[in-house]
Specification:
The protein is mainly alpha-helical. The chain is built from 20 helices and eight strands. Helix 3 (38-49) runs antiparallel to helix 6. It is globular.
Length: 501
């Protein structure tokens, strides 16, 4: 921890101090100097937002599960992740831990700095809204850390992560808190945020609806389905499910009908990167650059393609087919018997084609109303309400499909809970493809659905994959290990590594 957490906590909004841990540097910019008025705080808030990204989550989730196959021009990008290679030295283990605590540190420092900022008349509301966003973002970061590093979010006594709502000193070391302790901090921060935030205005900034959406997802992951359904319905009443045209335009960044919150990406920002240097899991980049080098076309360098097992779930009459499958894809009508499968079946990822004339760069959707509808479906399944025309898993899935097909679809029917949860996982797999959900969905629902990672056998035979075809949801690798560098530096964590590592 003295090496990682302490370094992360030492990263200030004001100055980097890796080389000055034990001295007070001359000329170092302190909070009271850096933040002297409301505009300074607003600028600092924008700086905090630049720490938030989901591209790494998208890359890890899509590669480690069954959303992708190795592209026909692959040079070995992320092949280790694709082979399910994961231990305490892996990039994923370090990346999500380091990023989460860096986010928390940045936000906490700005919260503390805000205490000494004098306000002019009429500035209190804007000041409160800044603080509310910071508390909500800190809660989100703690929850994200839990989702990766806790073995079971439904168990409050299980080990979670380190709960931090202050800036530790250089010599502080901490053990892991329990899930219950971390969730208590999250709830405290969300209550504070809700009391300070404004109603939804700009969906690229945190609002009360962000808090409600986070509460809905968090309650779902914890198995608290009554609360989850209540929060989800509140948002569905405000954010209708998109029509087919709106859905298409949503992923071109020209329609926000069902977007509750997104991370805006624009030309020239810190995320506007593509090419060989950003294809690894950890680097910041355009979202589409995690699948292709230059653009979304067949000549754009697709080093990953849509996995055949996922592609087989898409229906060409479903608008989600056109949003996810590139128009230049080469689709083999009999791929299982293709003489040259690698070149006769090329399924291009099209979820992030680009915007603002910049290929592969699109806004990152964090919360959408479609997720809320699928939360209702999940809550109904947990309550035993699988079938029926209203208030059931079947009814909610039919509602989503009606919107995506643009016509009345058959009402599904499920024989038991396992079938219902399998249908939910399949629908989430199609609806939320390449948005960073599949890894967490399999971890929390896979056992109930009797479903794990299941790639098409032909995808498993690609060069370098070495037959990595399936992974049961019970596998320990659906919980990330505490990174090795952290274990070396923090004696309190050495006996708290996750099982299997």
């Amino acid at each position: 921890m003295k090496r990682i957490i302490k370094y992360i906590f030492c990263l200030a909004l004001f100055a980097a101090c890796e080389d000055a841990i034990d001295i007070d540097q001359v000329g170092r910019i302190t909070p009271d100097v850096a933040f002297q008025n409301l505009q300074d705080l607003q600028d600092g808030l924008i700086g905090v937002y630049t720490k938030y990204d989901l591209v790494q989550d998208i890359a890890h989730s899509s590669t480690f599960t069954d959303e992708l196959s190795v592209g026909f021009i692959s040079g070995g990008q992320r092949v280790g992740d694709y082979q399910f290679i994961l231990d305490a030295t892996s990039l994923a283990a370090f990346t999500f831990w380091q990023r989460g605590y860096e986010e928390i540190n940045e936000g906490t420092r700005l919260i503390l700095a805000a205490e000494s900022v004098p306000l002019e008349a009429g500035e209190q509301s804007a000041y409160d809204n800044i603080l509310g966003q910071l508390y909500a973002l800190r809660a989100y970061s703690h929850f994200k850390l839990l989702s990766y590093y806790s073995t079971d979010l439904t168990d409050d006594s299980a080990l979670g992560v380190i709960a931090v709502d202050f800036v530790p000193s250089i010599d502080d070391t901490f053990p892991r808190n329990t899930n219950g302790e971390v969730f208590a901090l999250i709830e405290t921060d969300l209550d504070r945020a809700e009391s300070l935030l404004e109603d939804q205005g700009n969906i690229t900034f945190v609002s009360r609806d962000f808090v409600t959406a986070l509460r809905a997802r968090m309650a779902t992951y914890r198995g608290q389905y009554g609360m989850a359904a209540n929060y989800a319905q509140q948002l569905l009443d405000r954010y209708p499910i998109a029509t087919r045209e709106q859905y298409t335009n949503m992923f071109l960044d020209t329609d926000n009908t069902e977007v509750i919150f997104k991370l805006e990406r624009t030309r020239g920002d810190v995320f506007d990167r593509a090419g060989n240097g950003v294809s690894n899991m950890a680097s910041q980049s355009r979202a589409g650059a995690k699948f292709a080098f230059t653009n979304e076309t067949i000549n754009g360098g697709p080093f990953f393609e849509i996995g055949r097992s996922l592609f087989n779930l898409f229906d060409e009459a479903d608008v989600r087919f056109n949003v996810n499958v590139g128009p230049e894809s080469i689709i083999s009508p009999d791929y299982q018997n293709a003489e040259d499968f690698e070149n006769e079946d090329i399924l291009l990822v099209y979820k992030y084609p680009g915007s603002e004339t910049q290929p592969l760069m699109n806004d990152i959707k964090v919360f959408r109303s479609a997720e809320m509808l699928l939360i209702l479906a999940e809550a109904a399944a947990d309550n035993g309400n699988f079938n029926g025309a209203t208030n059931s898993t079947a009814a909610h899935i039919k509602q989503l499909r009606d919107a995506r097909f643009g016509s009345d679809q058959p009402l599904p029917s499920y024989a038991n809970e396992t079938e219902a949860f399998a249908a939910i996982l399949d629908e989430r797999r199609v609806e939320l493809a390449f948005e960073g959900h599949r890894f967490h969905d399999l971890k929390r629902l896979g056992t109930r659905a009797n479903q794990g990672v299941l790639r098409d056998p032909l995808d498993c035979n690609a060069i370098g994959v070495n037959g990595a075809c399936s992974l049961p949801a019970s596998d320990h690798r659906f919980t990330l290990p505490i990174p090795q560098a952290e274990l070396i530096a923090n004696p309190n964590l050495r006996e708290q590594q996750n099982p299997g590592y």
